[in-house]
Amino acid sequence: MENTVHVDLGDRSYDVVIGPGLLAQAGERIVPLLKRRRVVVVSDETVAELHLETLRAGLAAAEIEMTALSLPPGEATKGWPQFSRTVEWLLDQKVERGDVVVAFGGGVIGDLVGFAAAVLRRGVRFVQIPTSLLAQVDSSVGGKTGINAPQGKNLIGAFHQPSLVLADTFVLGTLTARDFLAGYGEVVKYGMLGDSEFFTWLEKNGPLLADGDMAARVEAVTRSVQMKADIVARDETEQGDRALLNLGHTFCHALEAATGYSDRLLHGEGVAIGCALAFELSARLGLCSQEDPSRVRAHLKEMGMKTDLSDISGELPSAEELVDLMGQDKKVVDGQLTFILARNIGDAFVTGDVPSDTVLSVLKDALAK
Ligand code: GLY
């Protein structure tokens, strides 16, 4: 029960290996990349407590020595203070140009450590070992690395592709149900944006995935990663098609800003709600049928996910204020917002041509629900 997806980027190509038990095999997987049998691992405290010893044993089985740094868990880590701490720690460990840094954790760790690897000695190689569903299907693949600025999320960073990604699906068993479902928001996004057959498969198999069925988990991660790999291979630096991966994100970023990037709304939850809103907007604009947004919402609800704005606890700002927050998104070009809309489930496209009064009316109705 193991699959490999190849990300085809010329001399920056790499494999994403997906399956249960990869931590225990990490040494034999990583050793071909090494010039000396030593790696540095950066993780977070939660992941380290649960899984670092398994990784250490997996590396030791191939006689690879490991030193590790654990950062505090959570989005607040993804800023300058922990970033400079990480870079200086890597320098203290005497990481050389030929060495490999391992990012072992969820999206925060993958993004921060990838960026540290991008700038350390003008670039060292790194391996992603993603431990959250969101990181396995999205952030560990494609080379976007970075940290947040006070002005906004992910505003400081670099494209730096990993040399290998090991997605151990066994590790997903230690996620909370909430974190798992938040990651599932990104999985279902792939079906909605480019593969209606995958969406139908998820309608049938989503509950199995949530219940821990390993074959279903491997299949869902593989199909998601394959879609991302294909898109990244076509458009590594997001000049066009890669923006499709942002389905639901224009709404999501406004909601994340409105909830202070707090526990009130996890990123994957915002993506799911944002996708439902993007389909509603597409239907209002006559681009897709009225049934599509209903079908999207029905699946999210069946999975027990946040689907509507009323599923977010506490007060939300007005529709006008949410539109203003969208205007601060980094995807704004010449003052115009970019939306990912859909002609059908599985057929999304990028456009800047969306009347703001329609966006406003979608949000007003969503807030009134
Ligand atoms: N998470 C969107 C991208 O990697 O492009």
Q: Topology of this protein?
A:
Layout: E1 3-7, E2 14-19, H1 26-30, E3 38-44, H2 45-60, E4 65-71, H3 80-92, E5 100-105, H4 107-119, E6 125-130, H5 133-139, E7 144-149, E8 152-159, E9 164-168, H6 177-194, H7 196-210, H8 214-234, H9 249-258, H10 267-284, H11 291-302, H12 319-326, E10 339-344, E11 347-351, H13 356-368
Parallel strand pairs: 2-9, 3-4, 3-5, 5-6, 6-9
Antiparallel strand pairs: 1-2, 7-8, 10-11
Helix pairs in contact: 3-4, 5-6, 5-8, 6-7, 6-8, 6-10, 7-8, 9-10, 9-12, 10-11, 10-13, 12-13
Summary of the model, kept short:
Pathway: Metabolic intermediate biosynthesis; chorismate biosynthesis; chorismate from D-erythrose 4-phosphate and phosphoenolpyruvate: step 2/7. With 369 residues, the chain is an alpha/beta fold.
Could you characterize the architecture of this molecule?
The N and C termini lie far apart (43 Å). The mean pLDDT is 96. A hairpin with a 2-residue loop joins strand 10 and strand 11. This protein has 13 helices and eleven strands. The chain has helices spanning 26-30, 45-60, 80-92, 107-119, 133-139, 177-194, 196-210, 214-234, 249-258, 267-284, 291-302, 319-326, 356-368; strands at residues 3-7, 14-19, 38-44, 65-71, 100-105, 125-130, 144-149, 152-159, 164-168, 339-344, 347-351. The longest helix is centred in the middle third of the chain and has 21 residues, at 214-234. It has a seven-stranded mixed beta sheet, with helices on both faces. Strands 7-8 form a two-stranded antiparallel sheet. It is α/β, with parallel strands linked by helices and 369 residues long. Helix 5 (133-139) packs parallel to helix 6. It folds into two domains: 3-174, Rossmann fold (3-Layer(aba) Sandwich); 177-368, Dehydroquinate synthase-like, alpha domain (Up-down Bundle), CATH 1.20.1090. The radius of gyration is 20 Å and the shape is globular. The structure holds glycine. Glycine (GLY) binds next to loops.
